[in-house]
Amino acid sequence: MSFLVLDRLSKAYDETMVVKDLSLSVEQGEFIALLGPSGCGKTTTLQMIAGFVEPTGGDIRLGGQSLLAVRPSGRALGIVFQSYALFPHMTASENVAFGLEMQGVDKAERGKRVSEALGLVGLGALADRYPRRMSGGQQQRVALARALVIRPRILLLDEPLSNLDAKLREEMQIELRQIQRTLGTTTILVTHDQSEAMALADRIVVMNKGEAEQIGPPFETYEWPATPFVAEFLGKTNVLDATFDQARSEVRIADAAWPLRSADAADVQVSIRPEKIRFVTGAAPGIPATITTRIFQGNHWLFQVDALGRKMTIIQQNDGEVKPSEGDVVRLGWMSADMRVRARPKERA
Fold first, then answer.
1. DSSP character for 74?
2. Other beta carbons within 10 Å of 11
3. pLDDT (tens digit, 9 = 90+) per residue, 326-340?
4. Any residues with CB less than 8 A from the CB of 169 and at least 6 apart, and which?
5. 107-120 and 166-183 are packed helices; what angle lies between their axes, rounded to 10 degrees?
6. How many CB atoms lie within 10 A of CB 43?
7. Same domain, yes or no, for 258 and 226?
8. Is residue 348 part of a domain?
9. Is CB count within 10 Å lower at the N or C end of the chain?
10. Does residue 349 lie within any of the structural domains?
11. Residues 79 and 187 grouped into a single domain
């Protein structure tokens, strides 16, 4: 039996369906990311799990028991909000201790657990400091310690790193993942940041217009997107019109051909991730392109090219070799295994 089950969970406001028949089974100790654009229903889903929003339909079961009739305070969940929601008049240790006081934990046990929680997030030396004298990263750690100190059955994270700068956010992603693995706490993260979801989660739920378009491990979801939306949202992708020649078992784009066993139609679209594309020479299959923009970004080069009337993005690792310049005419190629081929959408009349 799965630890947490969302069974056809739905939420509607008047005629607007915000979450539609969402089903998800979460194992104990698993880290799940609800990923999607604004308005896709991910935060509403988190709020329904927390008990702040009442579902219109479906069920939420934790350990086999429905939570629908359980008040938020009785669900034993830890929550970290985007704003951290720390009490400004309390020190770090007092903020962390607040939930334990509400639970009636005695003073000695409370002090021990607060000390352990602050130590876990690396703030043992700042126990007596007030939030106003802390950096954003330190405040985030206090909020995390406050959520973990009550030993929650599930940890809910509502975009907790979005207010941090890029470097600190990356550092906190590593720390958060290490803490989660150390404690084994079942965790649900809401985020719109694709790289954050892929860095932290065991599985990603890619949501769009209230529905889960794909659920799977980060690598699988990135490499094998189930829908065009997932391909576009989870990283960048290049899309080209192509034809599938069933007799030759190959996909053709302009004068180039790549072997392919089968396709859903004769008229197809091919999508290729930017990092899978190479500049090719000789007999390797490729399409002509002109480099319009070349940007050096330290560990990699970013190119934009015009190819067959479309703009394409290419990412090349900085391997120390000389790269083509803006204005150069090149040929772009890739491995057959790196193509994702779908039937071409029909044009609207």
1. G
2. 22
3. 999 999 999 999 999
4. 161, 162, 196
5. 130
6. 20
7. no
8. no
9. C
10. no
11. yes
